[in-house]
């Protein structure tokens, strides 16, 4: 596995529910930013790993 993750894009989530699901399942939140288009909402950034992707797929399948 490449230890230099600076060249790997983050997994970006716009849904607060999905971000909460990922965090409850052990996915580490990297950054949180205010949505530029909608200042009352947030954008969540997770590492782009197989662990995060597999939990995102499980969430989206529900």
Overall description:
The structure is a single chain. It is globular and about 30 Å long. It is built from 2 helices and 3 strands; from the N terminus they run βαββα. The protein has a 3-stranded antiparallel beta sheet with strand order 1-3-2, covered by helices on one side. With 62 residues, it is α+β, with helices and mostly antiparallel strands. The longest helix is centred in the C-terminal third of the chain and has 12 residues, at 50-61. The relative contact order is 0.27.
Shape: globular
Percent of sequence in beta strands: 15-25%
- For the report, how would you describe the main beta sheet? 3 strands, antiparallel
Elements, N to C (H/E): EHEEH
What's the rounded overall pLDDT mean?
A: 91
- Count of helical regions: 2
Give the tally of β-strands: 3
What is the chains' assembly state?
A: single chain
* Computed CA radius of gyration, to the nearest angstrom: 12 Å
Distance between the termini: 30 Å
Content-based structural category: alpha+beta
Strand order of the largest sheet: 1-3-2
* Low-confidence runs of at least 5 consecutive residues: 1-5
What proportion of the residues is helical, as a percent range? 25-40%
Summarize the model shown.
By secondary structure, the protein is of the alpha+beta class.
What's the topology here?
Blueprint: E1 11-13, H1 16-24, E2 31-34, E3 42-46, H2 50-61
Antiparallel strand pairs: 1-3, 2-3
Feature tags:
62 residues, alpha+beta, 2 helices, 3 strands, 34% helix, globular, disordered N terminus
């Amino acid at each position: 596995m490449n230890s230099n993750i600076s060249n790997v894009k983050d997994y970006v989530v716009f849904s607060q529910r999905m971000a909460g699901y990922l965090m409850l399942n052990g996915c580490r939140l990297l950054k949180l930013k205010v949505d530029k288009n909608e200042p009352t909402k947030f954008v969540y950034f997770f590492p782009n790993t197989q662990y995060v992707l597999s939990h995102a797929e499980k969430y989206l399948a529900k």
